[in-house]
Amino acid sequence: MTGSFTLAYVPGVTPGKWARVWQERLPETELTLVQVPAAEAAARVRAGEADAALLRLPGDREDLHAIPLYTETTVVVFPKDHEFAAADELSLEDLAEHVLWQPLDDTLGWDEVPGQPPVERPGTTADAIAVVAAGVGVLVVPQSLARLHHRKDLKHVALSDAPQSRVALSFPIRDENPELIEHMIGIVRGRTANSTRGPAAEPAPKQAPKQAPKQRRGPAPQQKKQPAKRAKPRRGR
């Protein structure tokens, strides 16, 4: 299959393993990977600048399908000398009275957390990381973004009761190239090459079935009995 396919992806998502499978299965179809800001991913697909996107839910879903692939762990990021330094896991209650940062380029869906100060919304994760490293507040993001922006002076641990984000493959509801989309869906879902929808493999040439020997119907024919041999009479002396 010839042609091309453009796959956009948001920061923190790593499409490399799926790209390798694509190259193995569709070597004649060029796959282009484009990293885009999370806030722009859906718009790029709608505008036709990408055939599909790997993005985070919840988010902008207008005129787009979304197939959830996996759920990311939510973590809290703070300086290594913070009061949370010895913690292995935190809860929202632990973060009370702390400034919470949630960048606009992730989509945990927070505007505010009940019973806590308003969540601040810096423009990017990189901006929030810099602020937290300076000792102002803590950052709540998907774990993949915390790893992407890792710094030696910061630490992150799981936030047990926080909202979680799901990574999904999103594409237009009225797609103009459904065959390639089906191939991509099969790859990200882990289907085998034979189960991925697309051109069917050529069947192996069929061999003519061997004919079974004909069976006779009815009772088997009876064999003729041979007449018994007569004993020759002995002659007297």
From TrEMBL:
Low complexity bias (residue ranges): 199-225
Top-level lineage group: Bacteria
Compositional bias per record (Basic residues), positions renumbered to this chain: 226-237
Database matches in InterPro entries: LysR_subst-bd
One MF annotation (Gene Ontology) recorded for this entry: DNA binding
Keyword terms: DNA-binding, Transcription, Transcription regulation
Domain LysR substrate-binding residue range list: 18-191
DNA-binding recorded as keyword: yes
Region (Disordered): 192-237
GO (cellular component) term, any one: protein-DNA complex
Pfam family name, one: LysR_substrate
PANTHER family, alphabetized: HCA OPERON TRANSCRIPTIONAL ACTIVATOR HCAR, TRANSCRIPTIONAL DUAL REGULATOR HCAR-RELATED
Family: Belongs to the LysR transcriptional regulatory family.
Protein name: LysR substrate binding domain-containing protein
Organism: Lentzea albidocapillata subsp. violacea
